[in-house]
Design a protein that fits this description.
CATH architecture: Roll
Strand order of the largest sheet: 2-1-5-3-4
Structural class: mainly beta
Radius of gyration: 12 Å
Protein name: Sulfur carrier protein
Strand content: 25-35%
CATH superfamily: Beta-grasp domain
Number of strands: 5
Organism: Nonomuraea jabiensis
Number of domains: 1
Largest sheet: 5 strands, mixed
CATH topology: Ubiquitin-like (UB roll)
Number of helices: 1
Order of helices and strands: EEHEEE
CATH class: Alpha Beta
Helix content: 10-25%
Length: about 70
Protein backbone atom coordinates (compact mmCIF):
# COMPACT_ATOMS: atom_id res chain seq x y z
CA UNK A 1 0.00 0.00 0.00
CA UNK A 2 1.05 3.62 -0.43
CA UNK A 3 1.09 6.14 2.43
CA UNK A 4 2.35 9.70 2.56
CA UNK A 5 4.83 10.23 5.39
CA UNK A 6 5.85 13.85 5.93
CA UNK A 7 4.83 14.67 2.39
CA UNK A 8 6.73 11.84 0.69
CA UNK A 9 5.11 8.78 -0.83
CA UNK A 10 6.19 5.44 0.70
CA UNK A 11 5.25 1.93 -0.31
CA UNK A 12 4.75 -0.01 2.92
CA UNK A 13 3.47 -3.40 3.99
CA UNK A 14 -0.24 -3.83 4.61
CA UNK A 15 -1.05 -3.39 8.28
CA UNK A 16 1.91 -1.13 9.07
CA UNK A 17 1.35 0.59 12.39
CA UNK A 18 1.96 4.20 13.34
CA UNK A 19 4.83 3.00 15.57
CA UNK A 20 6.51 1.30 12.62
CA UNK A 21 6.11 4.42 10.48
CA UNK A 22 7.69 6.55 13.19
CA UNK A 23 10.67 4.19 13.41
CA UNK A 24 11.30 4.62 9.67
CA UNK A 25 11.96 8.32 10.27
CA UNK A 26 13.52 8.69 13.70
CA UNK A 27 15.12 6.78 16.52
CA UNK A 28 13.97 9.42 19.02
CA UNK A 29 11.98 7.99 21.90
CA UNK A 30 10.72 11.30 23.30
CA UNK A 31 9.58 14.59 21.81
CA UNK A 32 7.75 12.96 18.90
CA UNK A 33 4.16 13.71 17.85
CA UNK A 34 2.14 12.01 15.12
CA UNK A 35 -0.98 12.89 13.17
CA UNK A 36 -2.74 10.63 10.69
CA UNK A 37 -5.07 12.37 8.25
CA UNK A 38 -4.87 15.53 10.37
CA UNK A 39 -5.89 13.73 13.60
CA UNK A 40 -3.37 13.46 16.45
CA UNK A 41 -2.59 9.87 17.45
CA UNK A 42 -1.67 9.49 21.12
CA UNK A 43 1.57 7.65 21.85
CA UNK A 44 -0.34 4.94 23.72
CA UNK A 45 -2.15 4.11 20.45
CA UNK A 46 0.85 3.98 18.11
CA UNK A 47 1.38 0.21 18.36
CA UNK A 48 -2.28 -0.61 17.73
CA UNK A 49 -3.15 1.99 15.09
CA UNK A 50 -2.82 0.43 11.65
CA UNK A 51 -2.36 2.61 8.60
CA UNK A 52 -4.53 2.32 5.51
CA UNK A 53 -3.77 2.87 1.84
CA UNK A 54 -3.41 6.58 1.02
CA UNK A 55 -3.20 7.70 4.66
CA UNK A 56 -1.29 10.94 5.32
CA UNK A 57 1.11 10.67 8.24
CA UNK A 58 2.94 13.63 9.79
CA UNK A 59 5.74 12.87 12.23
CA UNK A 60 7.06 15.87 14.16
CA UNK A 61 10.14 15.81 16.35
CA UNK A 62 10.79 18.51 18.93
CA UNK A 63 14.12 20.31 18.57
CA UNK A 64 15.79 22.25 21.33
CA UNK A 65 18.03 25.21 20.67
CA UNK A 66 18.20 28.89 20.39
Amino acid sequence: MIVMINGASHEVADGMTVAQAVRTLTTATTGVAVAVNDEVVTRSSWETTALSDRDRVEVLTAVQGG
